[in-house]
Write a structure and sequence with these properties.
Elements: H1 6-14, H2 18-25, H3 30-41, E1 48-52, H4 58-67, E2 72-77, H5 80-93, E3 98-101, E4 114-120, H6 129-139, E5 140-151, H7 159-175, H8 180-190, H9 196-205, E6 208-216, E7 221-228
Parallel strand pairs: 1-2, 1-4, 2-3, 4-5
Antiparallel strand pairs: 5-7, 6-7
Helix pairs in contact: 2-7, 3-4, 6-9
The protein binds S-adenosylmethionine.
Length: 230
C-alpha cells in the first residue's frame, strides 16, 4: 500500500469535512449523480461489487441496497480516516457493507472477482488514470460492468456553470480553512480529469466494450460506463 501517498495524508485531514466539501464541488448534486452511477452499475441481488476510491462510502451504500444482504459490496480507499467515516455511515444506516483500506492501483483481490466496479471522483487523483482503469478491469469478471463518475474541470465549462463554480471555489476554501494544501489538491486534481472522449479511449484500451458516457447538468459531471470483454 502506498502509505506515503500525499493523497492519503490530504484525505485523512479532509475526512471530517469531506461531505461538505464534496457538496460544494458538486453544487449539491453529487448524491443524484451517485444514484445514477449505482443504477448504471446494474448490480442485482446476490452480486459482488467493488466501489473503488470509496471515500466516505456514499456510492458503496447505494450499491449495498441493490445487491441486498445476499451479495456483497466492498468499498476501498487509501485513507483510513475516510474509511472510518464510511464504516460509521454503514452502521448508522443499518446496511451491510465491507470497507477496506487499500491502494486502488494495486487491489488486494483476485482477477475477475467482482461482478461490477464503480469509481467516483478517484481516478483524477492519479497522475495517469490508464493503469488505474486497467486495475479495475482486472478485478471485474468478463461481462461485468464498470462505471466511472467524474466532475468536469471548471476551465472546460462555459456560461452559468463556470460562473457558479467560480463562486463556490472560495466557499470551498472556507470549508477547508486553515488547510491551503488540501484546497490546492482538491482544485488541482479536478484539472486532471480527462475529457470524456479521452476517458472513453482509456476505457476501450483497458479492454472495455460498449463504452459510452452521459453528462449531467450541462456537462458539470460525466458518468462513463463499459462492459469487460468476455
Ligand atoms: C474525491 S474523493 C471521492 C470519494 C467518493 N467516491 C465520492 O464520490 O465522494 C477521492 C478519494 O480517492 C481516494 N484515493 C486517492 N488515491 C487513491 C488510491 N490510489 N487508492 C485508493 N484510494 C485513493 C482518496 O483517499 C479519496 O477518499
Amino acid at each position: 500500500m502506498s502509505t506515503a501517498s500525499p493523497d492519503r495524508a490530504v484525505f485523512d485531514r479532509i475526512a471530517p469535512r469531506y461531505d461538505l466539501v464534496s457538496g460544494l464541488m458538486t453544487l449539491g448534486m453529487g448524491d443524484r449523480w451517485r444514484r445514477a452511477a449505482a443504477e448504471a452499475a446494474d448490480a442485482t441481488a446476490g452480486q459482488r461489487v467493488l466501489d473503488a476510491y470509496t471515500g466516505t462510502g456514499d456510492l458503496a451504500l447505494l450499491l449495498a441496497d441493490r445487491v441486498t444482504r445476499l451479495g456483497e459490496v466492498v468499498g476501498v480507499d487509501l485513507s483510513p480516516e475516510m474509511i472510518a467515516r464510511a464504516r460509521l455511515k454503514a452502521t448508522a444506516s443499518g446496511r451491510e457493507c465491507r470497507f477496506e483500506v487499500a491502494d486502488c492501483t494495486a487491489l488486494p483481490f483476485a482477477s475477475d472477482w467482482f461482478d461490477a466496479a464503480t469509481a467516483s471522483g478517484g481516478l483524477r487523483s492519479l497522475a495517469d488514470p490508464a493503469p488505474g482503469v486497467a486495475e479495475l478491469v482486472r478485478v471485474v469478471r468478463p461481462g461485468g460492468r464498470m462505471v466511472i463518475l467524474e466532475v468536469t474541470p471548471p476551465a472546460r465549462l462555459r456560461g452559468a456553470h463556470a460562473r457558479v463554480l467560480r463562486f463556490t471555489t472560495p466557499l470551498l476554501g472556507g470549508a477547508l480553512g486553515g488547510d491551503p494544501d488540501a484546497f490546492r489538491h482538491m482544485v488541482a486534481t479536478i484539472g486532471h480529469v480527462p475529457a470524456p472522449q479521452d476517458m472513453a479511449a482509456i476505457m476501450g484500451d483497458a479492454g472495455l466494450l460498449g463504452v459510452g458516457w452521459r453528462t449531467f447538468a450541462g456537462g458539470i459531471a460525466t458518468l462513463h460506463h463499459g462492459v469487460v470483454a468476455p
